[in-house]
Design brief:
The complex is a heterodimer of chains A (597) and B (132). Chain A has 597 residues and is of the alpha/beta class. Helix content of chain A is 38%, strand content 15%. In chain A, the strands form six sheets. Chain A has a five-stranded mixed sheet with strand order 13-12-16-14-15, with helices on both faces. Chain B has four helices and six strands, in the order αβααβββαββ. In chain B, a hairpin with a 6-residue loop joins strand 3 and strand 4. Classes of the chains: A alpha/beta (597), B alpha+beta (132). The structure holds flavin mononucleotide and iron/sulfur cluster (SF4) (2 copies).
């Protein structure tokens, strides 16, 4: 079957394309024709290989040889040597920086693979609606060995030793949390899975639940065994119908196999899981608010302590973990905590899933080892900035986080470095901004969200954020006064210090971090009444270029407020004081004489 | 459905299922069985993955091509939904992005029947705990 014996895959990602991959393809075509091979070897352009710094890259199929830094002139040699004579072109192979050896088979080029999928290991691989496929991938084997071969404390020690930290934002050590909940004495305890995922633009948890629901169920059962709970509850937003449906199927299948329910795998351990729906309020992702919402009360946070580990759902000790945190648990048991610790960096072990969004070419879901740099994420995996624009910043941590800029591009991403850089890990939203984004407007966007989502329980957050939002609005409208910047900063710090819960405590972050990094944009808006990124419409002026205007009068006839004056066949003028910036004139002008600046 | 009673049972079951799935992947005649996975998470479905999956099933059936078409979760290539992963017998899996009916037809006509790759390949550049 198949008439082509060989394929040459040429990367057509933005990076490689810029470095001549199209010319390489042309040269390959010629070389193949010259050797009468055009019917045996096919050249195919592909998406980005994620190895842009070594581009252009090509891959030979079926033997998976990977050539890097290929020049158009190399095409002929590759055809003659590799295809005709079956010899690898040594000088174009990748040289492993550590071993200094040539590496040829792309399957052994793990180091070039920037992504390691642990939490996403089964996503896009198994059929999530079939428990058999999960079991065939060693599913429930971790639960089985934990309950048959370990005491709860031994199992907790494995999690502690792995140094896994919570992926829901705070980064609290998971093993320690389990131990605290275990130590709380009570007749009844609960395991709660936080699947509220309220960050705008984040969909990591949804993808895990949709792609691999059993891994979360298995981990919750392991947690139940460790802390001494026999009930698990998944709190999921009702806006996730597909995830809910797949969870329901998964729970039923696990029950049918006796992997949930009484006396699991012949042990004395009982555990079952139910689902609770959230109405999609951001604050309900905060664990105390989430617990209140589960109890049928208003989704408002309460002061900690008491921590849920001591008094949570129905006043009983409750262990709350995030979806992705749970998804990491089975592999830690299957492969061992020391394996897990080999991935990541000093203080943050394992991987993190990010939802890469915004002005980046390969928008999508990625999972990278902790300590990967922003540059690798955006340029190698993300394929660079859309339309060849200039990178400006990345917003991480959603409305609670901050922005990272050019100077942070080579900072390893982990919990502590992000906080030191004025942002935070958050749940893993990563929005890439380019030169066209106005940072004042970005801060305003996130505050719009916070104002909408504040539960209103405490004054700093309820009133303070509203006032901040108004000030930002004023600044983007070109009505900012000199003092506004200082006032904004002071207010932000007060809100940070005095709010009751994490929502209010972090809501000023987008403002503070854009101020830290882009103060000149604030100053430009307030002082010069200009928006450097040309986003804030109110600060833009329509004007007519007298050299291009022929005086056709079209614009003055469409202007709804008669802001344009001028004699026929004479250059026209816009009265800025009258103009309402509707843009009608610019659209009508046939001579491109009207512009916005 | 029979309950799994012990850890040993579970382990045995896992082995059996591994073999069974391998068998299903290769079929009775491993020479010709084709495996196709369609990424069916919210993002994929919103961009038409369901229709594409139906189309593949129908078209492969109509043409009497031996194939297993299954759904799976998000592959992570949201910029290129709908995405599919296709494995021809004895070959490495290939991921294709932006698969609509037209592309699906092209994939069947060119790649499945002729081994000729078509534009739109997304190189997979990640490792999992198993292949590390
Ligand atoms: C305003 C706010 C929203 C939150 N939203 C979420 C969320 O959507 N998902 C989540 O897992 N954790 C969220 N958290 C963090 C939780 O309070 C809690 O720390 C987390 O679920 C603990 O799990 P982990 O230790 O596994 O990270 C939020 C916190 C705050 C303050
Ligand atoms: S900080 Fe905001 S969200 Fe949190 S309790 Fe106060 S008002 Fe509610
Ligand atoms: S932008 Fe609108 S209001 Fe302003 S001059 Fe043009 S047509 Fe008139």
């Amino acid at each position: 079957m198949g008439k082509f014996k060989n394929h040459i895959l040429v990367c057509l990602g933005t990076g490689c394309r810029a470095s001549q991959s199209e010319e390489i393809i042309r040269n390959f075509k010629t070389a193949l024709e010259e050797n009468d091979l055009e019917n045996d070897v096919q050249i195919v352009g592909t998406g980005c290989f994620g190895f842009c710094e070594k581009g252009p890259v090509i891959k030979m199929v079926p033997d998976n040889t990977f050539y890097v830094l290929v020049n158009p002139e190399d095409a002929n040699e590759i055809v003659l040597e590799h295809i005709v004579k079956g010899r690898k072109v040594e000088r174009l192979l990748y040289v492993d920086p550590e071993t200094k050896k040539h590496v040829s088979d792309s399957k052994h080029m793990g180091f070039y693979k920037k992504q390691i999928r642990i939490a996403l290991r089964n996503c896009g691989f198994i059929n999530p609606e079939n428990i058999d496929e999960y079991i065939a991938r060693d599913g429930y084997a971790a639960l089985g060995s934990v309950i048959s071969e370990m005491t709860p404390q031994e199992a907790i020690n494995v999690v502690k030793d792995s140094e896994l930290r919570g992926r829901g934002g705070g980064g609290f050590p998971t093993g320690l949390k389990w131990e605290l909940t275990k130590k709380s004495n009570s007749d009844q305890k609960y395991v709660v899975c936080n699947a509220d995922e309220g960050d705008p633009g984040a969909f990591m948890d949804r993808s895990i639940l949709e792609g691999d629901p059993h891994s979360v169920l298995e981990a919750m059962a392991i947690c139940g065994y460790c802390i001494g709970a026999n009930v698990g509850v998944i709190y999921i937003r009702a806006e996730y119908p597909l995830a809910i449906q797949r969870l329901k199927i998964a729970i039923q299948q696990a029950r049918d196999y006796g992997l949930l329910g009484n006396e699991i795998l012949g042990s004395k351990f009982n555990f079952d899981i139910e689902i609770r729906y959230g109405a999609g309020a951001f604050v309900c992702g905060e664990e105390t608010a989430l617990i209140h919402s589960m109890e049928g009360l208003r989704g408002e946070p309460t002061v900690k302590p008491p921590f849920p580990a001591v008094s949570g759902y129905k006043g009983k000790p409750t262990n709350v973990n995030n979806v992705e945190t749970f998804a990491n648990i089975p592999p830690i048991f299957l492969k061992g905590s020391s394996w897990f610790k080999t991935i990541g960096n000093e203080k943050s072990k394992g991987t993190k899933v990010f939802a890469l969004a915004g002005k980046v070419n390969n928008v999508g879901l990625i999972e990278v080892p902790m300590g990967t740099t922003l540059r690798e994420v955006i340029f190698d995996i993300g394929g660079g900035i859309k339309d060849g624009k200039k990178f400006k910043a990345v917003q991480t941590g959603g409305p609670s986080g901050g922005c990272l800029t050019e100077k942070h591009l080579d900072t390893p991403i982990d919990y502590d470095n992000l906080i030191a850089s004025g942002s935070m890990m958050g749940s893993g939203g990563m929005v890439v901004l380019d030169e066209d984004d106005c940072m004042v407007d970005v801060a305003r966007f996130y505050l719009d969200f916070t104002v909408e989502e504040s539960c209103g329980k405490c004054a700093p957050c309820r009133i303070g954020n509203k006032r901040m939002n108004e000030m930002l609005e004023k600044i983007t409208m070109g009505k900012g006064e000199e003092d506004d910047i200082i006032r904004l900063k002071n207010l932000a710090n007060v809100i940070k210090d005095t709010s009751l819960c994490g929502l209010g405590q972090t809501s000023p972050n987008p403002v503070l971090s854009t101020m830290d990094n882009f103060m000149h944009e604030y100053v430009a808006h307030v002082h010069d009444k200009k928006c450097p990124a040309k986003q804030c419409k109110a600060l833009m002026q329509y004007s007519i270029d007298p050299n291009k205007c022929v005086g056709c009068t079209l614009c003055s006839r469409v202007c709804p407020v008669d802001a344009i004056s001028g004699e026929r066949k004479e250059p026209h003028k816009i009265n800025a004081a009258l103009c309402i910036k509707c843009g009608a004139c610019m659209e009508k002008c046939k001579f491109g004489a009207i512009s916005l600046s | 459905m029979a309950k799994v009673k012990t850890l040993a049972d579970l382990r045995k079951m896992s082995e059996d299922l591994k073999t069974k799935i391998q068998l299903r992947e290769k079929g009775d005649n491993p020479e010709s069985m084709i495996q196709l996975k369609v990424s069916m998470a919210t993002c994929g479905i919103a961009s038409g993955a369901k229709e594409v999956m139906d189309f593949f099933i129908e078209e492969l059936d109509k043409q009497n091509i031996d194939a297993v078409v299954t759904q799976t979760g998000c592959m992570g290539y949201c910029f290129a939904e709908p995405t599919i992963e296709i494995t021809l017998p004895g070959q490495d899996p290939i991921v294709y992005g932006f698969v609509n009916e037209l592309k699906a037809k092209e994939i069947i006509e060119k790649y499945v029947k002729n081994g000729e790759m078509v534009e739109g390949i997304i190189p997979t550049n990640y490792q999992t705990p198993d292949n590390q």
